[in-house]
């Protein structure tokens, strides 16, 4: 298995530029990432890839999870685990991700949302953006339990959409963590 961490910054990007401009860098880097993944798959005789990232890095990991299978051998499994991922596309995109990556709790896309992190709630659903299936929401009670939230943008109060109905009701510090075993992330 090849693990690829997708950073929130690529060379030749401006950290202060708005997210849509930075996301436009992905087509420039996709061939480089593809070449690196192909090299690693061959070097280690691997047949699976795990893409992971936080915040914008998670969004870029998801985009690469859609891109890579189009260019890798058909038996290559591509999984994505994103932390604090903003919404990436519209319903058609989310449906495509669910259809091609298994969708649901057993699928190859997992996006972990921490407590009342507002970043996974943007861009807003009113703009047509939708998360694919695969949310795992870390509860903001004393248990800190990780709960699977079935479907796309599950409105249950135990899931991010129900827990943070709008960005103003979130807590930006929750975007940093803690995630698994007390891990804190940086800002992108």
Structural notes for this entry:
With 188 residues, the chain is of the alpha/beta class. 26% of the residues lie in helices and 19% in strands. It has one domain (2-182): Rossmann fold (3-Layer(aba) Sandwich). Residues 9-23 have low confidence and may be disordered.
Task: Name a few traits of the molecule.
188 residues; alpha/beta; Rossmann fold; 6-stranded mixed sheet; two-stranded antiparallel sheet
Number of DSSP strand runs = 8
Q: Say which CATH homologous superfamily is assigned.
A: Alpha/Beta hydrolase fold, catalytic domain
Low-confidence stretches: 9-23
Radius of gyration: 16 Å
The number of domains: 1
Strand order in the sheet with the most strands: 1-2-3-5-7-8
Count of alpha and pi helical runs: 5
CATH architecture: 3-Layer(aba) Sandwich
Largest sheet: 6 strands, mixed
Report the structural category: alpha/beta
Please describe the topology of this protein.
Blueprint: E1 2-5, H1 19-23, H2 26-43, E2 48-54, H3 56-67, E3 77-83, E4 89-90, H4 91-100, E5 109-114, E6 129-130, E7 135-138, E8 146-149, H5 160-163
Parallel strand pairs: 1-2, 2-3, 3-5, 5-7
Antiparallel strand pairs: 4-6, 7-8
């Amino acid at each position: 298995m090849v693990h690829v961490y997708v950073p929130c910054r690529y060379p030749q990007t401006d950290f202060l530029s708005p997210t849509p401009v930075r996301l436009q860098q992905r087509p420039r880097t996709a061939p480089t990432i593809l070449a690196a993944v192909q090299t690693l798959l061959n070097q280690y005789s691997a047949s699976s890839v795990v893409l992971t990232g936080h915040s914008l890095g998670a969004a870029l990991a998801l985009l690469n999870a859609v891109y890579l299978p189009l260019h890798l051998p058909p038996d290559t499994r591509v999984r994505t685990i994103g932390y604090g991922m903003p919404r990436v596309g519209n319903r058609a995109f989310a449906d495509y991700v669910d259809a091609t990556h298994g969708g649901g709790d057993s699928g190859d896309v997992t996006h972990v949302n921490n407590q009342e992190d507002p970043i996974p709630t943007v861009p807003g659903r009113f703009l047509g953006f939708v998360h694919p299936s695969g949310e795992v929401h870390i509860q903001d009670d004393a248990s800190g339990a990780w709960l699977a939230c079935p479907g796309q943008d599950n409105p249950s109060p135990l899931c991010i959409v129900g827990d943070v109905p709008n960005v103003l009701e979130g807590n930006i510090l929750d975007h940093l963590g803690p995630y698994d075993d007390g891990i804190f992330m940086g800002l992108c």
